[in-house]
Amino acid sequence: MKSSSRLFTIGLVSAWYSSNIGVLLLNKYLLSNYGFKYPIFLTMCHMTACSLFSYVAIAWLKMVPMQTIRSRLQFLKIAALSLVFCVSVVFGNVSLRYLPVSFNQAVGATTPFFTAVFAYIMTFKREAWLTYLTLVPVVTGVVIASGGEPSFHLFGFIVCIAATAARALKSVLQGILLSSEGEKLNSMNLLLYMAPIAVVFLLPATLIMEENVVGITLALARDDVKIIWYLLFNSALAYFVNLTNFLVTKHTSALTLQVLGNAKGAVAVVVSILIFRNPVSVTGMMGYSLTVLGVVLYSEAKKRSK
């Protein structure tokens, strides 16, 4: 029994790793290598798929009980979270147009730093001094990696920092806005409500900022039908990331997920370098390694302070 349970957990983690890294690499391929330069539309495709699959998983397959929105205020809170979530995903996709996946992941690893900053600003929550100390190598590593990155792009770097900050802000806001017992939603139900709201935000943005994107996509499909399959598979994979994230947390723990997430970043870096063959420097890899070490130490310090 234990053996089958262990195999199931390993399978879940493998699926989570594969979907996470897969959607990241496919985003990079579409936005940079393939030349599909529409990150807002791509994010809207992701959110549309998440809306549909979330409804099927909860309303039809009954994977988790459906939780309802209880008030207009709760809806507005979810809408605010959805807006911040949109910003983080769109900016993350924009950064992939200009930065290699390896450097994108190095910057993304600074999420704990921004989480600690926003938690202090918005809730006055102070961590132990040792926890703050572990953030020094997190930030220092990115500074070193930036200096040693052969493909460094200033705009891409700024947008990637903004995406990382928005991701951290979303997690802090979620803790604040949906903290009362009557408003708490599990991650699958939260996605069920956030994803369609995100589509509402993204639709006018892509129509205004990415003019005639649907016509261009259809024109591309006439020349190469694979673009449609890429978009469909990529969108389905984006939902699968959220589903496996929920299942891994359910069958392990949030702390295990955090540790696995740290390792996932390193795996994504290696895989992306092997696939895209982007140049890397020893300085850049040393910087990224220092950041990952800082994140591991931060996780350990947080665990001990509880």
The H/E string reads HHHHHHHHHHHHH
User: Mean pLDDT score, rounded?
Assistant: 91
What radius of gyration results from the CA coordinates?
Answer: 19 Å
Broad shape = globular
Number of helices: 13
Poorly predicted parts: none
Termini gap? 32 Å
Given the helix and strand composition, which structural class is it? mainly alpha
Strand content of the residues, in percent?
under 5%
Q: Domain count, please report it.
A: 1
Biggest sheet statistics? none
Fraction of residues in helix = over 70%
Work out the number of β strands. 0
What does this structure look like?
Helix content is 82%, strand content 0%. The chain has one domain. Helix 1 crosses helix 12, helix 2 (39-60) crosses helix 3 (72-98) and helix 3 runs antiparallel to helix 8 (154-177). The protein has 13 helices and no strands. The mean pLDDT is 91. With 306 residues, it is mostly helical.
Core attributes:
306 residues, 13 helices
List the helices and strands and how they pair.
Blueprint: H1 2-33, H2 39-60, H3 72-98, H4 101-108, H5 111-123, H6 129-133, H7 135-147, H8 154-177, H9 187-209, H10 213-223, H11 226-251, H12 254-276, H13 282-305
Helix pairs in contact: 1-3, 1-11, 1-12, 2-3, 2-9, 2-11, 3-8, 3-9, 4-12, 5-8, 7-13, 11-12, 12-13
Question: Can you describe this structure in just a few lines?
Answer:
The protein has one domain.
